[in-house]
Amino acid sequence: MDYPIVDLTNCDKEPIHILGKVQSHGFLVAADIASLQVQYISSNFERLAGISYEDLLNQPLQAVLDAIQEKDKAQSLLQVIRFSVQNGAENLNPVRLWIKDQLYNLVVHLSGKSFVLELEPTSSDIDIQLQNMVGSSLSKILEGASLQETLERAAQQIRELIGYDRVMIYKFWEDGHGEVVAEQRNEELEPFLGLHYPASDIPRQARELYKINLTRIIADVDATPADIIPASSLGSAQPLDLTNALTRAVSSIHIQYLKNMGVKASFSVSLLCDDALWGLIACHNYSPRFIDYKARQHARLIGQVLSSSIQYRSSQDDKEVNVSYRNAADEIIRRMQKDWSLVDALINQKNNLLKITGATSAALVFEGRIYRVGDAPEEEQIGRLVEWLQHNNKRIIYHTFNLPNAFQAAEAYKAKASGLLACAISKELGEYILFFKPEIVATVKWAGNPDKPVELDEKGQARLSPRRSFDIWLQEVTGTSERWSKAELNAVFKFREDLVHFINLKANEIRKLNEKLKEAYDELDAFSFTISHDLKTPIASVKNYAEIIMEDNPGLDEQGKHFLYRIMTCADKMDTLIKEVLGYSRVSRQQLHKQTIAMAPVIEEIRSELVAAYKPANLEFTVSGTPDIKGDRVMIVQIFTNLIGNAIKYSSKSDPSVVKVEGKEEGNQVIYSIADNGIGIDMNYGGHIFELFKRMDNVKEYEGSGVGLAIVKRIMEKHNARIWYESEPGTGTIFYLSFEKD
Ligand code: ADP
User: Fold this and answer.
1) Which residue's alpha carbon is nearest to atom 13 within ligand 1?
2) What is the spatial distance between Cα 638 and Cα 606, in angstroms, rounded to a whole number?
3) Measured by CB atoms within 10 angstroms of the end CB, which terminus of the chain is less buried, N or C?
4) What are phi and psi of 262, to 5 degrees?
5) What are phi and psi of 99, to 5 degrees?
6) According to the model, what pLDDT value does residue 130 have?
7) Which protein residue has the closest C-alpha to ligand 1 atom 25?
8) How far is the CA of 646 from the centre of ligand 1 (A)?
9) Beta bridge partners of 41
10) Ligand 1 atom 7: residue of nearest CA
């Protein structure tokens, strides 16, 4: 959902790890690792040691230990501290110490060139057998049947462990804001479950610290923190870095925030998934409440187990969904490979695009066409969306759950497509697969108006201030869809790989087919050339023998003569056909000898030859414009002879028969047209008239073989030139020839 992001930059920059104070329940002393000289000490140390902190600064650490322990114990304590500093402090933490009838936990950690000792009382209010409790807590948590139940059980167990008034599981959303997703509380407290808190409530650097320190206690919101006093010898050196300190004081802003909420003590445990902060176990108490180190460590253990459980469960869920998406995608690819059709497999099958993700509609933009599946936006809207994607997005996979926010035109169809997952097949060609999710109008309950966490002071300037109002503030969120899950993104990403692979395969296959086709053509050419050539002799013999029979048998009856004539004319016809087929196959063998051809004399010569051959009754032949053509003279003559011949032939029954040859130059093209007013061609036959032996139904009364135009087309292709025609049956035909000038 689209949550307003509040950027409390001031809050974000507050250096909360070097505040220079400890909480009042803790005592801190830091010494230089090399010299063991005391460099920092908290002002409240006086209470513990009975000596002014000023007398301890710059002294050997031993002096501090002597002040809080008997001599021999102090000595061995120093050994322990040294050992723990050298061997990883964590292992020995905490060391238990009696100081003035009070048991303390001593915890050691490193900070730069110093090691830091912190003392905290063990006087926890929790009075139970922690060890046993944690074991049973963990098993109860892990018994949760669903993630939600696990979270609720965790809240319950933590509450029993630390006895706080309210324990919440607080989940961070991608934009940094949080939501209470599970809660256990005192009956009389109002519920916070389901409330959303702006990202600024837990600023970025605080979230970073939660990743380092997995627990954090603020034992008493109202207690005055103690200053950490640096040795004067340090001058203006960096203040002590308290990133890893347990007793680090709290920023005054956060204290005020808690006060505004009425909270007196707060405790949190971090929940991490894949090294990111997934959320917090956030605990509030309405009176001060300290929890000692051991109990906090146990809570931390529960947090770690809960973190693993969250991670395991979500990866498990992801896995299941992943498998179902993957299976659907694999089946589509299998079908594609079987049927060899991308569009059919993606769109028309029952197991189509929609099964790869949780989308409710989808579209495929491929080879200049838009295919829609389900209730997708209109074609025109998809066209514009793709244009926008092409120009505004470099990524192969783009996804949003708030499309109208990114692309305003989508506002018009947000009901169908507030969520978009776009996957480019080819960005350059504008080919995409688009998945859509519908709008989900949601009401978000904010704990206070998230737009107004900043207060203005008397001068009207923004003042660092925590929110005062936690009144529920409802926000209606529109134009957003359910989010795209990792499983969906993974499935689409993998699917794209397979798809692109398939498209490449197909392209290769087509290339191979083309080569095979060319080979087959060449073979066929050679074959028809040989056959035609070999047929010529026997045909000539047939005709010769028919003539001999005719001459040798003058007394043959009429029927016999008629049959012999038929044999002779058929043999002639066959001979012509063979010549033409030979001519056709010769075109592909012939070399082009290009030259500039002056067309006026060529056309005139063709005209006179054709007139001699056809002897048209009433022919009006006009020529206008005869620009030069660059081409093979013999072949160009063949083209014009065929076309002008056809024009005269198929208009011979018009009176007058009109044939117009016209040439002109257009840019880099020379275009000739040959028009007649003859019988015309049914345009539904389109390019078929250029196929070998194709003759239309209306030419039965005209001599012809159906080879002429096939030859013309071949010659034009050889010249990289184009031929097309316009015609109307009964009215006439115009053929166009377009040649490149150079
Ligand atoms: P044909 O030897 O039959 O003329 P072509 O290959 O030259 O063979 O032409 C193929 C067919 O195209 C013809 O049979 C005819 O049906 C049609 N055709 C070609 N030119 C014309 C034209 N000028 N007018 C009408 N029909 C034509």
Assistant:
1) 695
2) 9
3) C
4) 85, 15
5) -130, 120
6) 67
7) 680
8) 6
9) 29, 229
10) 708
Going from the Cα of 643 to the center of ligand 1, the distance in angstroms, rounded, reads 9
Backbone angles phi, psi at 127, to 5 degrees: -125, 60
Which atom of ligand 1 has the smallest separation from the CA of 676?
23
555: Cβ contacts below 8 Å, ≥ 6 apart = none
| CA-nearest residue, atom 4 of ligand 1 | 704
Q: Give residue 224's pLDDT.
A: 93
Identify which of 56, 57, 58, 33 has the alpha carbon closest to the alpha carbon of residue 116.
33
Distances (CA, A) of 716 to 588, 624, 722: 11, 22, 6
pLDDT value for 583? 80
User: Which tens digits make up the pLDDT trace of 25-42?
Assistant: 999 999 998 888 999 999
Three-state DSSP class for residue 606: helix
Q: Give distance in angstroms: CA of 730 to centre of ligand 1.
A: 14
Report which ligand 1 atom has the smallest distance to the Cα of 678. 24
Pocket test for ligand 1, best of 689, 697, 713, 714 (most atoms within 8 A of CB): 689
Band of pLDDT at residue 644, cut at 50, 70 and 90: very high
Q: Which of 699, 705, 734, 735 to mutate to test the pocket of ligand 1 (most atoms within 8 A of CB)?
A: 699
Neighbours of 576 (CB within 10 A): 12
**Contacts by residues 692-695 (CB-CB < 8 Å, ≥ 24 positions apart):** 692/584
List Cβ neighbours of 170 (8 Å cut-off, separation of 6 or more).
Answer: 178, 179, 180, 181, 197, 279, 280, 281, 282
- Ligand 1 is surrounded, with C-beta below 6 A, by 642, 646-647, 650, 676, 678-681, 689, 694-696, 699, 704-710, 733
Residue 695 CA to ligand 1 centre (angstroms)? 6
Neighbouring C-beta atoms of residue 684, cutoff 10 Å:
6
**Neighbouring residues of 220: CB distance < 8 A, sequence distance ≥ 6:** 23, 24, 25, 264, 265, 288, 290
What average pLDDT does the structure give for the chain? 85
718: CA distance to ligand 1 center in Å? 21
Residue that has been written with the tokens 């134009």 in this structure: 479
Average pLDDT over residues 658-678: 96
Render pLDDT for 256-280 as a digit per residue (tens, 0 to 9). Answer: 888 888 899 999 999 998 889 999 9
User: Of 505, 45, 38, which Cα lies nearest the Cα of 240?
Assistant: 38
Atom of ligand 1 nearest to the CA of 706: 8
pLDDT in tens, 70-114: 888 888 888 888 877 777 656 677 888 888 888 899 998 888 888
Single-letter residue type at 140: K
Query: Could you tell me what percent of the chain has a pLDDT over 70?
Result: 91
Instruction: Please tell me what DSSP assigns to residue 59.
Output: S
Question: In which order are the strands placed within the sheet that holds 38-42?
Answer: 21-22, 226-230, 38-42, 27-32, 114-121, 102-111, 95-99
Hey, CA dihedral for 93, 81, 213, 46, is it positive or negative?
A: positive
Q: How far is the CA of 625 from the centre of ligand 1 (A)?
A: 25
SS3 497: helix
Q: How far is the CA of 740 from the centre of ligand 1 (A)?
A: 25
Of 650, 683, 735, best ligand 1 pocket probe by most atoms within 8 Å of the beta carbon: 650
Taking the CA of residue 650 as reference, the ligand 1 atom at the shortest distance is 24
The phi-psi region of residue 88 (left if phi > 0; otherwise alpha if psi is between -120 and 50; otherwise beta) is left
* Predicted confidence (pLDDT) per residue in 356-410, tens digit: 898 999 999 998 899 999 999 999 999 999 999 999 888 889 999 999 999 999 9
Closest ligand 1 atom to the C-alpha of 679?
25
- Is the separation of the CB atoms in 218 and 267 below 8 Å? yes
pLDDT tens per residue, range 572-613: 888 888 888 778 877 877 888 999 999 999 999 999 999 998
Nearest CA residue ID for atom 23, ligand 1:
647
